[in-house]
Design a protein that fits this description.
Blueprint: H1 3-23, H2 31-47, E1 71-73, E2 83-84, H3 87-101, E3 108-115, E4 118-125, E5 128-134, E6 140-142, H4 145-148, E7 165-173, H5 176-188, H6 197-205, H7 210-215, E8 219-228, H8 236-246, E9 255-258, H9 259-273, E10 281-288, H10 291-297, E11 307-311, E12 316-328, E13 333-345, E14 348-354, H11 358-364, E15 371-375, E16 383-387, E17 413-414, E18 421-422, H12 430-441, H13 453-461, H14 468-471, H15 478-483, H16 489-502, H17 507-513, H18 521-531, H19 534-539, H20 542-546, H21 553-564, H22 566-577, E19 597-601, H23 609-618, E20 622-624, E21 633-636, H24 642-650, E22 653-655, H25 657-663
Parallel strand pairs: 2-11, 19-20, 19-21, 21-22
Antiparallel strand pairs: 1-6, 3-9, 3-10, 4-5, 4-7, 7-8, 10-11, 12-13, 12-15, 13-14, 13-18, 15-16, 17-18
Helix pairs in contact: 1-2, 12-13, 17-18
Bound molecules: 2-(butylsulfanyl)adenosine.
Length: 669
């Protein structure tokens, strides 16, 4: 094949893979293979620049800078949207729509993600990208075409024939992973990190040098059209389908909802998926689906009457840092906790947030009295992202690191190789004992109802609890317990039977409950499944532990050391003597998934990943975190990336959620 034909083939092939990746969400090749194609094309073009066409995918890395942006007048104005905060305002919108239409029947809406980026209008003339412009004041924006050409998901040429002129509208966003990556690099280079992905995206689109835009690795998702010579569809949902066929990335979360009840349900679902989406959203956009009806409803100067933005509460907020407290965890690690002036963020009022470790604290340079940015996304623990330096008061001092344990006053040790301070007083430090007990009785471990944080603290104080075995000696203190205020006879009975019952918990939960460093629930089940009983885990040497799939050197040595310690051996024996007998985990040879290893990847919509993993384990299989030649099945949801590619490379069977569900006995999930 001559060079020119090869270049043309590569251009087509790369564009095809771009489409599979960004639009279809179904890559056929791995990132490495894609890079190979891309580099080959770059090389051909370098050797013979006459083969470099303006629409070559290599040109997406940016063009030489301009000294200003031209203005661009939108053919159809880019309107804004009215907001609805809460269900009441949403209902009012639905009522307004029905009233204007003079109908009682439920209206059909399309509920879409409200992407948190900057809006973009792309003009295509006879199928070719002519201009890309920012929103500006809604009538006139800035022509940022060279920048837009570096954005993933903006096609140069449409895949289906749409003649004449069409304005395609959508949002440019920065993915969370890219944001984190770029910020890490910026901090390393001593640059100020970006405040949030939206700022980073909008700053990126407004670079005069498009090579700088390219470095921001932005993405585009489409949500509608402006002016359009052709009538493409009768409904908003069909329009989105047409645009997808033409090569635009359209998010698949958009769902048709008839009536307010269905809308509210979908909004809740979207709110739940918010933390696991690859980019930030700040709400749900609700649009009347029928386009003729949209026209009947019309627009005000501000925005259409047929659409509304249902806003979620912000995931980030500003507040003041009142104090930094040092807290001791169950393994003795001492971590800084921020005490904040209460602030409403991510749907709850937050007054404490984590600062991770002392390294993090000094990197973020957060000081008492500072105005700080707090983030709470989904159910994750709120964290302090950083301080607003401009608002820092004079004399604010760098917080001092503790030298002694804040609870037992033992001199702290700085662990080599870890960014952690540790209280070495394992046996005597009250804070560690309390945290260990709390972990042991927690839901994911021995699950002892009635023994929460407060009870543990109280019983510790009264000397009724001191270590894990003491939990099983509580029954000898029945009368004493009944005598305590708010404990009554019934609640003591309930507590004691919950304790009795916990003696038969499965081995994996027991191992998890021991609170061995680095042994989370997944590692605990790996150990339980591999060894089958406690004695075998206890006797396994380093090499044997390392041979367990999913266990690396760090975990293996920690586990081995833990079981070797005399104190721990004595404690385990005491638990066994008291009747704790962790039930054997189901052996590998039983269950429909016996001997099969599953990996879940991508966003799973039909079930929680943890529930699916538990189902696999319960049926005798194994749920692993990474794909290898030992993997039997990869269950891939949308957005699956490198793991899916690896599976394809290794020829591992790939299932979608539906197929996986089909393998389970009725009613498992
Ligand atoms: S439709 C006439 N759909 O939200 C309708 N907008 O607050 C105009 N946005 O400027 C917009 N996701 O930048 C629409 N699925 C979505 C959206 C969306 C994000 C942004 C858009 C707009 C702003 C209005």
């Amino acid at each position: 094949m001559d060079k020119s034909a090869r270049a043309a083939f590569l251009r087509r092939e790369i564009e095809r893979h771009n489409r599979l990746y960004y639009v279809e969400d179904a890559p056929e090749i791995s990132d490495a293979e894609y890079d190979r194609l891309f580099r080959e094309l770059q090389q051909i073009e370098e050797e013979d620049p006459s083969l470099r066409t303006p629409d070559s995918p290599t040109q997406r890395v940016g063009a030489p800078p301009v000294d200003h942006f031209e203005t661009h007048r939108h053919l159809e104005p880019m309107l804004s949207l009215d907001n609805a905060f809460g269900e009441e305002e949403l209902r009012a919108f639905d009522q307004r729509v029905k009233k204007a239409l003079e109908q009682d029947d439920d209206v059909e809406y399309l509920a879409e993600l409200k992407l948190d980026g900057l809006s973009m209008s792309l003009t295509y003339v006879d199928g070719l990208l002519a201009t890309a412009a920012t929103r500006g004041d809604g009538t006139t924006g800035e022509n940022v075409t060279p920048n837009a050409k570096t954005v993933r998901g903006i096609p140069y040429r449409l895949d289906t024939e749409i003649l004449g002129t069409i304005e395609v509208r959508g949002e440019v966003v920065m993915h969370k992973s890219v944001f984190e990556d770029l910020n890490r690099l910026r901090v390393e280079r001593g640059d100020q990190p970006f405040v949030n992905p939206r700022n980073a995206a909008s700053g990126g689109m407004r670079q005069l040098d498009s090579r700088m835009t390219a470095e921001r690795r932005l993405n585009f998702y489409c949500y509608g059209t402006g002016a359009c010579d052709e009538t493409l569809a009768d409904t908003q949902s069909a329009l989105m389908q047409r645009l997808k066929e033409a090569g635009f990335p359209v998010r698949k979360e958009g769902a048709l909802c008839r009536g307010i009840g269905a809308l509210e349900k979908r909004i809740k679902e979207i709110e739940q998926m918010r933390p696991s989406l690859p980019f930030g959203i700040d709400g749900v956009v609700i649009k009347v689906n029928d386009i003729a009806t949209q026209k009947r409803l019309g627009s005000t100067a501000r925005g259409p009457r047929w659409a509304i933005a249902y806003k979620f509460s912000a995931e980030q907020a500003f507040t003041v840092l009142d104090a930094i407290e040092w807290q001791v965890g169950r393994t003795g690690v001492v971590t800084p906790v921020a005490h904040l002036q209460p602030v409403f963020v991510g749907g709850v009022t937050v007054s404490r947030a984590t600062l991770h470790n002392f390294d993090d604290l000094s990197k973020k340079d957060v000081r008492v009295g500072d105005t700080v940015i707090v983030q709470r996304a989904g159910d994750v623990i709120p964290e302090v992202l950083g301080a607003v330096k401009d608002k820092r008061k004079k004399g604010a001092r760098v917080p001092a690191l503790p030298t002694r344990c804040p609870v037992c006053k033992t001199t702290l040790v700085e662990e080599e190789g870890y960014v952690a301070l540790r209280c070495p007083n394992r046996k005597g430090c009250e804070a560690q004992i309390q945290a260990k007990l709390e972990h042991f009785v927690s839901r994911g471990a021995m699950d002892i109802e009635g023994l929460g944080e407060k009870q543990v603290a109280r019983f510790l104080e009264l000397g009724l609890l001191s270590d894990l075995p003491s939990i099983y000696r509580l029954k000898g203190h029945r009368d004493e317990l009944i005598g305590l205020d708010r404990m009554g006879e019934q609640s003591v009975s309930n507590l004691l039977s919950a304790i009795e019952e916990s003696k038969q918990r499965p081995l994996d939960r027991f191992v998890f409950g021991l609170g061995i460093r680095y042994v989370g629930d997944r590692t605990a089940s790996d150990l339980a499944r591999e060894f089958g009983d406690l004695a075998s885990i206890q006797d396994a040497d380093y090499e044997r532990l390392l041979a367990v799939e999913g266990i690396g050197p760090k975990v293996a040595s920690e586990v081995q050391e833990w079981f070797e310690l005399e104190d721990n051996r004595v404690m385990l024996q005491a638990l066994l003597d008291l009747g704790v007998s962790p039930a054997q985990t189901e052996a590998r040879s039983e269950g429909v998934f016996a001997g099969k290893t599953f990996v879940f990847t991508g966003k799973l919509e039909r079930f929680e990943r943890s529930a699916a993993e538990r189902a696999v384990t319960a049926l005798g299989g194994k749920a692993a975190g990474s794909v290898s030649k030992n993997t039997d099945y990869v269950v891939a949801g949308p957005g699956a990336g490198s793991k899916l590619a690896k599976a394809e490379q290794l020829g591992v069977a790939v299932l979608d959620e539906e197929e996986f569900l089909g393998m389970l006995p009725e009613g498992t999930l």
